[in-house]
Amino acid sequence: MIGLTHYLVLTGILFSIGLVGVMRRTNLLMLFFSTEILLNAVNIGFVAVSKFYGDLSGQMFAFFIIAVAASEVAVGLGLLILWYKRNGSVDLNSLQMMKG
Amino acid sequence: MIALGCIALGAVLLMLLSAMPKVRMEHCSLFAFVTLLIGLILTLTSFGELFTFFPLPKFFHKMLIVDSYSVYFDAIILSGALVTSLIGTHYFQTKRHFKKEFFSLFLFSVFGMMLLVHASELLSAFIALEIASLSLYVMIGFQKVHDKRVEASFQYLVLGSLAGIFFLLGSAFVYAGLGTTILGEMGNRLDTLMGKDVSLVIIGATLILVTFLFKISAFPFQNWTIDVYDGSSLPVSAFMAATFKVAIFGFILRLMLVDFDPIRDTWDTLFIVVIIATLLYGSFLAIIQKSLKRMLAASSIVHTGYLLIAFVSIGYAGESAASSIIYYLVAYFLSAMGAFGLISYIAADEHVRVTYEDFRGFAHVHPYMAAMLSVFMLSLAGIPSTIGFVGKFYIFTGAIEAGYTFLAVCGVVATFVSVYYYFKLIALMYFYPACDSDWKDVPSLKGITPLTIGLIALAIIWGGIGNTFIAYFPGVDFLIDTARLSYMSLFIK
After folding, report:
1. Is the pLDDT of residue A100 over 50?
2. Which of B134, B152, B230 is the closest to A71 by Cβ?
3. Contact B169/A98, CB-based, under 8 Å?
4. Partners of residue B166 in chain A, C-beta under 8 Å
5. 3-state secondary structure chain B
6. Given A42, A50, A60, which is nearest B123 (Cβ)?
7. B83, B277, B382, B456 — which has fewest CB within 10 A?
8. Domain count of the fold of chain A
């Protein structure tokens, strides 16, 4: 029987995959993919908990997360195109002009 | 609440208007200003009263809340935005890269921040946070002729969205642990769970705190601050420094005071480490900077440290600590806004550079600007007779009252260090002969922008001296009393 724990473990695994992706990938497009994986991991968690409690607000949360993720990527891809036009590269290492 | 709707309506209208070829940028700027002014006036009508209610419960259920607390923060955010739009007038006119849509995004971002302090659900808080951040990402990257802008925008976007995801994961954990994400109810559920295992809630709340620490640029997450502030245009960095932090504090204070009250002790040690590291590292970063803009960005990290001192003392001296945070936010907002605004006015021309060395002997050429800049530096350093001093005074006394004498000492030491990098500018301006910099390109004191900056400087001094001179005029006491009142409104059932 698949219970809440299994879903939460899946959330954890997906989240770790996404987190490693964000930290390791230098391709900006891949970076956005990793962010999406992270968000969807959270979505699974929300929906599973929502089903567990029989409470709909978690599913509502998931819908809004999908919408926000889309708008975030829209801004991100816009910037990506801008950067590619200018520098001909979508690599994170081409971004390091400023030093902290 | 009406103010919130007014700003949202204004933003949408402005977006539609900016598509018309007849409408020029000056009109958009004026429109944004008028919308903000109406919003501020609407907010001020209920300022200083004690109340709390859920607006339109049929539509929003309990997702939004209106109380004295959120009205106080609304007033700060709106006046910050208003001052930004006044200060930016000159800048936006000289730099032709800005387009009309910029002002619409500006209003959207203000709307997001106001929504954040009104949020009474983790979901609405997340949406508000994203509205504010997304508009800011675009605002930072707006002048796309500069690689620096695009890069700053990118950096903020990638890191900011990661921080947002941590907030979501945290909310998922809290939801799993408590079964609700409505503020207020979460606190009640937590009370009934006390004595049982609440580790899931603690993990979730810690993840939410990570987002919070990132957005206010506290220690482990401070690296983006200097680059992003330096990369964005000056009015935008002023806006970010002054108002976004206010909104974030507004939400997180509500969350901590109302909902996570029973488990707040868990983070005491964590916060003490974070505060000391923030103060140390922020001071270090501020000392090594050569550019004035980067120094102000780095010093904003130190100011975050001071605010966190008050934040941690909430547990033991709730009322005075919470109201001291609110008061310090006002003080910092005025000083930072003034400093950033004046520098943006000076550096409106591309040729003018704003490193320390460029200000050698500035006072002999532009005495009034130098005087104003000195006032802002004095206030940021917390010298008596400025509003910055009063703010710091309340924070440190609050910390001592709560038993965190050590933290108060750390804060005072950081203040001493900060005198070095703030006074270096004053010393360079006054005690050296004028160098042959391009001061010709510095605009003369004319128009609305210098007037606003001058008024801010006066407000800083007046806030520090208090109402001893002008009787029957609201002063520091009024602000701090209203802060206390807004704190009380959090606990009305």
Report:
1. no
2. B134
3. no
4. none
5. CHHHHHHHHHHHHHHHHCCCCCCCHHHHHHHHHHHHHHHHHHHHHCCCCCCEECCCHHHHCCCECEEHHHHHHHHHHHHHHHHHHHHHHHHHHHCCCCCCHHHHHHHHHHHHHHHHHHECEHHHHHHHHHHHHHHHHHHHCCCCCCHHHHHHHHHHHHHHHHHHHHHHHHHHHHHHHHCCCECCHHHHHHHHHCCCCCHHHHHHHHHHHHHHHHHCCCHHHCHHHHHHHHHCCHHHHHHHHHHHHHHHHHHHHHHHHHHCHHHHHHHHHHHHHHHHHHHHHHHHHHHHCCEHHHHHHHHHHHHHHHHHHHHHHHHCCHHHHHHHHHHHHHHHHHHHHHHHHHHHHHCCCCCCCCECHHHCCHHHHCHHHHHHHHHHHHHHHCCCCCHHHHHHHHHHHHHHHCCCHHHHHHHHHHHHHHHHHHHHHHHHHHCCCCCCCCHHHCCCCCCHHHHHHHHHHHHHHHHHHCCCCCCCCCCHHHHHHHHHHHHHHCCCC
6. A60
7. B277
8. 1
